[in-house]
Design brief:
binds magnesium ion, alpha/beta, binds adenosine-5'-triphosphate, 8 strands
């Protein structure tokens, strides 16, 4: 069993998108996948087509009991064709849970870790909020690996540096079992600016940088429709986007593939243009 926290204190870089894409890739590869939505925005939960869940991650953290996550696990709304991940749904109520966690002198940091005890999947992915608050810290304490998602833009290196030092601090307190799974450069387009910043990330972080996920309208569309990329059929860019996530998933097991170039069989420039305002 592998537990990966998907993190970056910066908002909108693609944590949720990468969580959904990797869940799809790993499920399609035949793994039993659980996703924990630890963000009050609950975008992962919506992306899986789950609304109004009876039991959510907020209930799980409220009880603080060992194994309490088991009772909150539900199937995602995706079809079963290529493997359907399970989900511990998110909730907007989490926003109020964070200050309550802070007032717990014993379990502020490892409530989620305790709640996941006895939960047995091949892969557990934890999507986290855009902050370095106690929810993100709980995600890191519960994980054995941290996957940092960033955009190839200005200040990306600084943001990743800050995240790396947070992971190191948690690892020192968590018993040292937490490691960096890698850095995913998401929303890579073919602009000079993107290539420059991606190069900076590679220069600074070397082999920690995983294969990129390119900017593609199909990705935003799949999330908006609460569908896996494979369910978009022949939609332009969908298969290529799924292949990007497959490559990240493979690289998480095999650190040999590292490319910042935006090469692909389809025209990524056209995709970027199609993408309009995003
Ligand atoms: N590779 C991509 N191609 C096209 N659109 C993308 C890509 N990655 C993310 N997006 C879009 O960018 C927006 C932000 O992505 P996402 O919600 O995954 O970021 P986040 O880091 O989870 O945000 P938050 O910090 O608010 O949780 C979403 O609308 C998403 O569909
Ligand atoms: Mg998110």
């Amino acid at each position: 069993m592998r537990t990966i926290a998907v993190v970056n204190q910066k908002g909108g870089v693609g944590k949720t998108t990468v969580t959904l894409g990797l869940a799809e890739a790993a499920a399609a590869a035949g793994l039993r996948v659980l996703v924990v939505d630890l963000d009050p925005q609950a975008n992962t939960t919506s992306g899986f087509g789950v609304w109004g869940a009876a039991t959510t991650i907020d209930d799980v953290l409220a009880t603080g009991a060992a194994g309490s996550a088991l009772a909150a696990i539900t199937s995602s709304g995706w079809s079963d064709e290529s493997g359907r991940p399970d989900l511990v749904p998110g909730s907007p109520a989490l926003a109020n849970r964070e200050p309550m966690l802070a007032s717990d002198p014993v379990g502020a940091q490892d409530r989620l870790r305790l709640a996941l005890r006895g939960v047995d999947y091949d892969l557990t992915l934890i999507d986290s909020p855009p902050s370095l608050g106690l929810l993100s810290v709980n995600a890191l304490f519960a994980a054995d690996e941290a996957l940092i998602v960033t955009e190839p833009g200005a200040w990306a290196v600084d943001g990743v540096d800050l995240m790396l030092s947070t992971v190191e601090r948690v690892a020192a307190r968590q018993g040292g079992s937490l490691v960096i799974a890698g850095i995913v450069v998401n929303r890579l387009g073919r602009t000079r600016d993107n290539t420059f910043w991606c190069g900076q990330l590679q220069e600074r972080f070397g082999s920690l940088v995983l294969p990129p996920v390119r900017l593609r309208a199909a990705i935003a569309e799949a999330t908006a429709q609460a569908l896996p990329l494979r369910a978009l059929g022949k939609r332009a860019g969908a298969a290529e986007a799924a292949a990007d996530f497959d490559a990240v998933w493979q690289a998480l097991g095999d650190r040999s593939i590292r490319e910042c170039s935006s090469n692909s069989t389809s025209d990524a420039n056209a995709e970027e243009a199609n993408h309009g305002g995003l």
